[in-house]
Amino acid sequence: MNLTHFKLRADDSQITWVGIDVAGESVNTMGTPVLDELNSLLDHFEKEPPKSVVFYSEKTSGFIAGANVNEFVEIGKTNDLNAAEALVKRGYDVYERLANTKYPTLALINGFALGGGLELALACRYRVAVDMPSTKLGLPEVMLGILPGWGGVKRLPQLIGAPAAMDYLLAGKTASAKTAKKLGLVDEAVPPRIMWNTAIGVLKAQPPVRKLSFAQNMLTNGFLRSFVASQAKKTVAKKARREHYPSPYAIIDLWQKYNGDVHKPSADEACSVRSLISHPTAMNLIRVFGLREQLKAQAKGIDFKAQHVHVIGAGVMGGDIAAWCALRGIRVTLQDLDAARIAPAIKRAAEMYKKRLRDERRIRDAMDLLQPDTTGDGATKADVIIEAIVENLSVKQKVFAELEAKARPDAVLATNTSSIPLEQIATALKEPSRLVGIHFFNPVAQMMLVEVISGAQTDPEVARKATAFVDQIDKLPLACKSAPGFWVNRILAPYLGEAMRCLDEGIAAEIIDEAALAFGMPMGPIELADVVGLDVCAAVGQTVTPDAKAPQKLQSLLEAKSLGKKTGKGFYTWVNGKAQKNSAGAVPTGLTDRLIQPMLNEANKALAEGVVTNPDHADAGAIFGCGFAPFRGGPINFQRATRHA
Ligand code: NAI
Which atom of ligand 1 is nearest to the CA of 314? Predict the structure, then answer.
């Protein structure tokens, strides 16, 4: 049989091996041509039944990343709901066919299996996951505002029980090979060297298919099903409003009422594919997915990879930047004035690695990569040097003058400054073109966005290397011009300022925050100011809007050294990391607009000034850097949509 995306091979153990190798792509995705070919393959197997079949990936990048999101993006452009519905139903039917074959099937999951990729594995009788860091199993469709319509909603609860399945379906989280084994999502989790033999062994033994325990069966298929559904809806309601994010609610309904069969609810507004896709959230979230890819794409083709990073300043930012780089497998030297100032950063790194890596050996490897450096010798060998010392021009200039003398001539010299114009710092250098900004956000481990700042003097080649470096450490690079506040703080400052003025007018903090939540912000501006730190907010406000009158309440809190979450008191009192809030009460008409409008205006202005280069990047920066309501697609997209509404 003639195949383009699959490779067939039979062997002595009477297994037909199906290698998935989507033509012309570095990553396997289940686009329509691939799905069609899988269907033809199933036709072929119907005529000449194999003894057993193993699906595996021929790509080193992973198993299957999911459906081809670009097909949804194209559908979004034409708003062709019939095409969208047909796409989902087609996938459902092909996987249903796979699930009903008489011969045993096994998915050998080498690397990530996400969305439509995991659904293919779920349709197989057995699953073996290869235990390696890149193996991740999950159904992230909810993050795109859609649902796992190719059998995921049906099969995942049957396999691991409804309560655990809801966790994965509704939050879009992923499981490692070991966790997947514990959950019962895979039959085996094995190291790469025995993966082939394990697949052969499972198909030879053909153990009975895993069944749910009595209690799990009650929760999944019995009379407790509606209880699980209503609990799940309550949990979702705490995090996402139905009018903003309909998909988690639709997933629960599709499971509860129709057992995940996408053909059934065609007229049910609550969970039909048609109603979900026609909601603006889905198209905006799919667009956001595209924006993320656009930011990453800036690093494509740049031939630069850091082996050694030197960070100067082991404080809040420098310490965490160093820890993050070592977590990403880069050798890091971390410099500060003395060992005592570096020690807390190393301790924080150890805690982060423990949480994220779990495995003792991997924790030790990461710790080995992170070396304290009180002499600053690391700077002589590093490919990238990041300065993250106090926000003081003359101190920074002095450090850069010394650095330039000892750094390698090809090393990237970067500052993490949030407010000092790059051109001013660069005057300390013999070659000012070497200086670029690599501006991380706090907390470093959680914030995906990193602004790559070019001053008027920055050599574009240096900015390109910085972009590649940001991508190398799995962050999203946003190219910005050196202008007060760059992009993120520039648009955040007027929004926070307006919120603080509302507070000075006597509107309760809780009501202000609620007004922003109603728009879809993940956190209200008053709480956000407390989290960022009121000293930092005041400094940013001063940089971006130097002429605006400083909000009074902010001033008095600063004078009392109540700096927000970090001191336990700011606009809110903080207990165990949580803001103590009263219930909000009704949000006055117009308050939401009053808060959001200054941010939209500033975004338009900054974009027109060329602080970022295009509207898509502007939206991406607002979403990934400020948490701008993702389902609204960013400030520029939002204004475009409201104008057309
Ligand atoms: P920090 O005060 O926590 O840490 C600064 C560290 O630099 C201290 O440990 C200090 O001992 C060290 N240091 C000072 N002079 C030094 C020198 N000559 N050589 C070596 N080490 C020296 O400051 P933080 O908050 O980490 O900020 C650092 C930089 O990052 C600043 O430029 C700031 O504007 C920027 N930034 C801060 C953010 C935040 O939320 N804190 C966010 C983004 C950027």
Answer: 9
Split into its structural domains, the chain has a count of: 3
The question of whether 451 is a catalytic residue gets the answer yes
Region label for 301, one of left (φ > 0), alpha (ψ between -120 and 50) or beta (otherwise): left
Residue 558 C-beta-side C-alpha neighbours within 13 Å: 14
Range of the domain at 413: 308-485
Q: pTM value?
A: 0.88
Ligand 1 within 6 A of 379 CB? no
Could you tell me which residues come within 8 angstroms of residue 75 by beta carbon, excluding any fewer than 6 positions away?
83, 84, 87, 277
Q: Give the list of residues 6+ apart from residue 36 with CB closer than 8 angstroms, or none.
A: none
N- to C-terminal Cα separation, the chain: 51
Give me the mean pLDDT over the 63-72 stretch. Answer: 91
Do the domain assignments include residue 303?
A: no
Tell me the three-class secondary structure of 230-298, residue by residue: HHHHHHHHHHCCCCCCHHHHHHHHHHHHHCCCCCCCCCCCCCCHHHHHHCHHHHHHHHHHHHHHHHHHC
Average model confidence (pLDDT) for the chain?
94
Instruction: Quote the tokens at residue 585.
Output: 């009460």
Question: Which of these, 430, 431, 443, 434, lies nearest to 415 by C-alpha position?
Answer: 434
Q: pLDDT tens for residues 288-297?
A: 988 998 999 9
Return the closest-CA partner of residue 122 out of 135, 109, 134.
109
% of residues, the chain, pLDDT over 70: 100
Same domain, 392 and 434: yes
- Rounded to an integer, what distance in angstroms lies between the CA atom of residue 509 and that of residue 632? 24
Q: Is 5 exposed, middle or buried (0-12, 13-18, 19+ CB in 10 A)?
A: buried
Give the other-Cβ count within 10 Å of 357's Cβ: 17
Same domain as 83, residue 47 = yes
The H or E element that residue 74 is part of is: helix 69-78
CATH number at residue 598: 1.10.1040.50
Encoded tokens for 545: 């809007």
The reply to whether ligand 1 has any atom less than 6 angstroms from the CB of 403 is no
pLDDT at 645 over 70: no
Distance between CA atoms of residues 351 and 348, nearest Å: 5
The domain boundary, picked from 485, 506, 539, lies at 485
CB 484 within 8 A of CB 543: yes
Q: Is 263 a catalytic residue?
A: no
Q: What are the helix (H) ranges across 381-521?
A: 393-406, 422-426, 460-472, 488-504, 509-519
Note whether 509 and 478 are same-domain residues. no
Whether residue 418 lies in the annotated active site: yes
Position 77 pLDDT exceeds 80: no
Q: Is 270 found in the same domain as 416? A: no
State the catalytic residue, choosing from 489, 510, 514, 617.
489
State the number of CA atoms in the 13 A half-sphere of 632 facing the CB: 21
- Which one is catalytic: 418, 454, 482, 637? 418
Does residue 78 register a pLDDT over 90?
A: no
609 classed as catalytic: no
Tokens found for residue 491: 């648009």
**CA distance linking residue 639 with residue 632, whole number of Å:** 9
What percent of the chain has pLDDT above 90? 85
DSSP string over 368-397 = HHEEE-SS-GGGGT-SEEEE---S-HHHHH
